[in-house]
Amino acid sequence: MIRVVMFDLGLTLIDDHGRPFPHVKESLASIQGFVGGGKPVQSCLVSDFKMPAPPPTPAKIKALFEEYLQVFLEPTGLRSFFEPVQKRITLSTHAGAVKPDRHVFTKALERLGTTATLDQCLFITEKGTHVDVARNEHGMQTLLFREPGANRFDFDDWSQAPLLVAHLIEPGENGEAAVKTYLSGVRGLDDVSVEPTADGFTMHGRVWRPISGPGLGELEGVHVSFPVEGHFTRGPRGAVEDLRVGEPSTEQLAEAASFVRSLVRNKQIGPASGRGVSRPTHEVAVDEQGRRRLVRKRFTAL
Fold first, then answer.
1. For residues 203 and 136, what is the distance between their CA atoms, to the nearest angstrom?
2. 4-175: CATH, from 3.30.450.20, 3.90.1150.10, 3.40.50.1000, 3.40.50.300
3. What string of pLDDT tens digits covers the 302 residues of the chain?
4. Intra-chain end-to-end CA distance of the chain, in Å
5. Inter-CA distances, 117 with 3, 31, 110, Å
6. Per-residue CA distances from 228 to 61, 98, 252 (Å)
7. What letters, b where the CB count within 10 A reaches 16 and e where it falls short, cover 158-172?
């Protein structure tokens, strides 16, 4: 049983410019919620970095660790996924060896404070040679992220990673959360629910689509939420396959545009106008992709 998931950093979680690959943050958040045998699965980061000048004193190691955090990790925006860093980040600096040496991984388990053994660990990296050593010499489970130009890999899209990890841990316990992460990351679906069927799975959710038409003015192209249904199957390793998701109909789009025009006429879109004055019920918010979304306002009691 897998009790610990270990992640490589460079070219696995981040590209060669230090930017997280698409869907990495959603996947890390999903995987950190996984359980195995009724207990939370732990995760940590294992990364190669500078070696201290001999002799390797604690002060030198600490200084290099702080440099790694400030210069290499914090700019990625991923530090929060590995707090507390003193337990959940292990460098070659700490181990006195570089991956895939066994001591790097055992040092990571030591810092994590777990009784797990290497055969209870899953290591995710883009280096095929490291996967071979981790699996064949250390007895670890592995997943190989696609290195640029490589033909050998287990996955090349981080939105699929939680599905593969869940399948290796306990599919029943973690599968639904992993599927939701995938549907959200790939299709941008919200409020997803999934039900098994005889030939796969059906899903229900909401998708954001732009509306257009006369009378919308500045709201031309604003995104509105629509209910959708879909169907998919899962492959032998847990990946989502044959995904089919419906789209809003022409009638639904027209009805949404009409609804937005009525909100405009009744001055129900915009910031609250103050105490004792009729408040708008909706506002336009910009999401992480730069899309303008029409959302219902949330009010607090006065």
1. 39
2. 3.40.50.1000
3. 899 999 999 999 999 999 999 999 999 999 999 999 889 999 999 999 999 999 999 999 999 999 999 999 999 999 999 999 999 999 999 999 999 999 999 999 999 999 999 999 999 999 999 999 999 999 999 999 999 899 999 999 999 999 999 999 987 779 888 998 888 877 789 999 999 999 999 999 999 999 999 999 999 999 999 999 999 999 999 999 999 999 999 999 999 999 999 999 998 998 644 454 467 899 999 987 899 999 998 654 44
4. 52
5. 9, 19, 10
6. 53, 49, 11
7. bbbbbbbbbbbbbee
User: Strands 282-286 and 240-245, how do they pair?
Assistant: unpaired
Q: Hey, what are 206's tokens?
A: 């909401």
| Single-letter code of the amino acid located at 146 | R
Question: Could you give the residue range(s) of every CATH 3.40.50.1000 domain in the chain?
Answer: 4-175
Structure tokens at 144: 């190989």
Q: How far apart are CA 213 and CA 217, in angstroms?
A: 9
SS3 readout for the chain = CCCEEEECCECCCECCCCCECCCHHHHHHHHCCCEECCEECEEEEEECCCCCCCCCCHHHHHHHHHHHHHHHHHHHCCHHHHCCHHHHEEEHHHHCCCCCCHHHHHHHHHHHCCCCCHHHEEEEECCHHHHHHHHHCCCCEEEEECCCCCCCCCECCHHHHHHHHHHHHCHHHHHHHHHHHHHHHHHCCEEEEEEEECCEEEEEEEEEEECCCCCCHHHCCCEEEEEEEEEEEECCCCCEEEEEECCCCHHHHHHHHHHHHHHHHCCCECCCCCCCCCCCCEEEEECCCCCEEEEECCCCCC
